[in-house]
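Field log, afternoon session.

UNIT: design team B
ACTIVITY: writing a sequence onto a fixed backbone
BACKBONE:
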């Protein structure tokens, strides 16, 4: 369109219309020079004949000084003409100013009268013709002004919208580009128009070939074309452009042509890409997120159906991620996640997908695997990359990753089936505390079903009151009698008594485990309190507390209230905690709760003493009143001199700190003898009794009441 604007403007501007009119007036009147003056807002020459060019400077002044004549009186003009005298010597008698209105403008002809005068008849005819010509010339001038305005507006539109106009002659193949077309391609307006092949070469391969086919199709079918493609400009810059084109049929002036626009949409394209990236990627690790991974996973499985290749899903979990966050801070946790992302991306192939699909969970999609050998090679690299060293503030921590994998079609062809299979394999690694990668095995599913059934049955058993405390006696070697018991959870399943190891999954569950612990502890406190009402020497009650129990505010508070309610006459209650529980308390909140419970009369025992590296620190910082020697030090103590030294040392530590020491796991008379020689006093183990229900405990205590020490009973039994 701009091409035709410029062509029309050029055509209108080939001759100055009012110069031409002034020359025609001089010829028609047989007069001297003629000048045409625009009187408003102030006299301005807009046209003059050739003879009047030298008088331009005087004409403006004369237009200001002389009065116009009345056109109605021109019929009386004769020779000599009564005109205004000239301010200079010339071959003309005078000058007259003939007013006229054209196109809304006040114009005037300044006509220099020759000595022979003017013909009134000629002047009359001239006035009639001049009015018509002035009107036509004024209209032409208006068109010219409008065209200039349209050209400026169109150029502004092109620049503002980054839109260039182009046209291709379907007969000659010649092209026209507007100025903005040149600017979009980093070329200067005014350069020679490009050929069709040159224009197509700006499009990045293979888009140039695709566009050529599309343009040919549009030229033949007359269907509109609208595509978006990348180009590389003359300056080597990458841009994205939108091409719109449609065939235009021939008319009187132009042949068939393909016309259209090209818009630079780079900014919008990049903005859309950024929005898409943000919606489909994890901001921290810059990996694909769950939504994008799910889409790629689905696509890979659909594509696999058309080939014989394998698709493998790998789920990866960071072990002890919470511990890193709690001990080193969340910034260290973020750094760890970035390290894991980098490690996994480097381990897999370029066409595989690594995504962050949860807080510390990653998913890997291995696709287009042509053989099991290729799959095994990638999985082996993953197995060897599951240890991450995190260095943070001069500390270096070794973090392990656990992974589970499932293969399609071996383990299923649907997304859900593969996710479940990989998750079972991952759970197997987490359950066994293995830092490795496990490939799904059907037996994993069976184990999961058994676990699910155990959880369901345990809930029903708890509701029915069939999960109860059993009591394992703790003996005093000095008196040979039972001085305390440890309450252990047992599940009465018909005629079978199931130990804690049989329903460990239920005890480890965040919700169900807490319910079982509270139920067992409440019942144990009530049963031992009832026994102690009839005893002069009160039994102490020890109960185990897991990390899940202790992190709940209600657990210690509930036991503290029970102790206050029962009073010291019903015996002491001791909560056994492990070192791992205390280590998982970077904020110190748990330590504060332990100290508060201690002030309410609850005792605390450090279980499995000697197996941790900071046990002595905990003794000094927490209100610990009792130590329990781990059973691993007792096994083989009869002949193992090293273990004997360790037991002796622990006994000395307890004695010097005035702590009660219980040695558990005692299973033979020889072990009792050895521990006695080493200075031990309080023992617990199968040699004396296994964990028994409350009625059997009462019977054991009654048997002691016949003045026969429990040690003697065990020895004779």
């Amino acid at each position: 369109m701009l091409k035709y604007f410029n062509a029309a403007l050029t055509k209108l501007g080939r001759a100055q219309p009012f110069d031409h009119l002034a020359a025609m007036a001089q010829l028609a009147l047989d007069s001297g020079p003629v000048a045409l003056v625009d009187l408003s807002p102030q006299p301005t020459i807009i046209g003059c004949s050739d003879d009047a060019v030298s008088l331009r400077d005087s004409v403006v002044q004369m237009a200001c000084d002389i009065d116009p004549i009345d056109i109605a009186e021109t019929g009386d003009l004769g020779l000599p003409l009564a005109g205004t005298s000239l301010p200079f010597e010339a071959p003309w008698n005078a000058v007259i100013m003939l007013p006229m209105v054209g196109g809304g403008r006040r114009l005037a002809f300044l006509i220099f009268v020759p000595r022979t005068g003017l013909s009134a008849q000629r002047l009359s005819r001239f006035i009639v013709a001049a009015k018509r010509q002035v009107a036509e010339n004024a209209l032409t001038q208006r068109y010219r002004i409008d065209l200039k305005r349209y050209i400026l507006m169109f150029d502004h539109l092109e620049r503002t919208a980054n839109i260039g106009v182009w046209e291709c002659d379907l007969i000659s193949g010649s092209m026209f580009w507007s100025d903005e077309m040149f600017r979009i391609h980093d070329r200067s307006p005014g350069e020679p128009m490009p050929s069709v092949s040159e224009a197509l070469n700006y499009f990045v391969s293979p888009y140039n070939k695709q566009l050529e086919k599309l343009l040919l199709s549009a030229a033949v079918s007359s269907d509109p074309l609208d595509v978006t493609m990348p180009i590389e400009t003359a300056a080597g810059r990458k841009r994205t452009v939108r091409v719109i084109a449609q065939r235009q049929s021939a008319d009187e002036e132009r042949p068939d042509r393909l016309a259209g626009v090209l818009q630079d949409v780079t900014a919008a394209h990049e903005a859309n890409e950024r929005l898409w990236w943000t919606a489909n990627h994890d901001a921290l690790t810059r990996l694909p997120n769950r939504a994008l991974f799910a889409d790629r996973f689905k696509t890979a499985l659909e594509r696999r159906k058309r080939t014989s290749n394998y698709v493998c899903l790998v789920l990866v979990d960071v072990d002890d991620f919470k511990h890193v966050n709690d001990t080193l801070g969340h910034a260290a946790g973020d750094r760890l996640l970035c390290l894991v992302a980098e490690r996994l991306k480097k381990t897999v192939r370029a066409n595989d997908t690594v995504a962050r699909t949860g807080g510390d969970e990653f998913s890997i999609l291995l696709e287009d695997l042509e053989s099991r050998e290729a799959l095994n090679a990638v999985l082996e690299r993953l197995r060897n990359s599951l240890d991450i060293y995190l260095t943070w503030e001069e500390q270096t921590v070794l973090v392990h990753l656990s992974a589970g994998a499932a293969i399609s079609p071996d383990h299923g062809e649907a997304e859900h089936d593969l996710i479940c299979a990989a998750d079972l394999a991952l759970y197997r690694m987490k359950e066994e505390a293995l830092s490795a990668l496990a490939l799904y095995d059907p037996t994993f599913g069976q184990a999961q079903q058994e676990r699910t059934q155990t959880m369901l049955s345990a809930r029903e058993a708890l509701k029915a009151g069939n999960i109860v405390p059993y009591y394992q006696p703790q003996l005093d070697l000095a008196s040979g009698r039972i001085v305390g018991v440890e309450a252990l959870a047992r599940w009465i399943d018909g005629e079978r008594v199931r130990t804690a190891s049989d329903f460990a999954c239920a005890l480890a569950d965040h919700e169900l485990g807490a319910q079982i612990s509270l139920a067992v502890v409440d019942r144990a406190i009530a049963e031992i309190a009832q026994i102690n009402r009839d005893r002069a020497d009160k039994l102490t009650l020890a109960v185990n507390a897991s990390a899940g129990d202790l992190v709940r505010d209600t657990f210690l508070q509930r036991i503290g209230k029970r102790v206050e309610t029962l009073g010291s006459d019903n015996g002491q209650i001791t909560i056994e905690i492990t070192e791992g529980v205390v280590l998982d308390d970077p904020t110190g909140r748990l330590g504060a709760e332990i100290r508060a419970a201690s002030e309410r009369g609850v005792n605390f025992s450090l279980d499995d003493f000697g197996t941790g590296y900071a046990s002595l620190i905990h003794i000094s910082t927490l209100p610990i009143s009792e130590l329990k020697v781990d059973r691993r030090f007792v096994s083989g103590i009869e002949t193992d001199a090293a273990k004997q030294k360790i037991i002796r040392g622990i006994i000395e530590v307890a004695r010097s700190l005035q702590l009660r020491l219980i040695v558990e796991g005692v299973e033979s008379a020889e072990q009792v003898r050895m521990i006695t020689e080493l200075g031990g006093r309080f023992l617990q183990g199968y040699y004396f009794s296994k964990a028994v229900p409350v009625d059997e405990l009462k019977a054991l205590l009654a048997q002691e009441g016949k003045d026969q020490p429990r040690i003697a009973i065990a020895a004779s039994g």
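LOG NOTE: Residues 1-9, 11-15, 76-83 have pLDDT under 50 and may be disordered.
NEXT ACTIVITY: expression trials, pending approval
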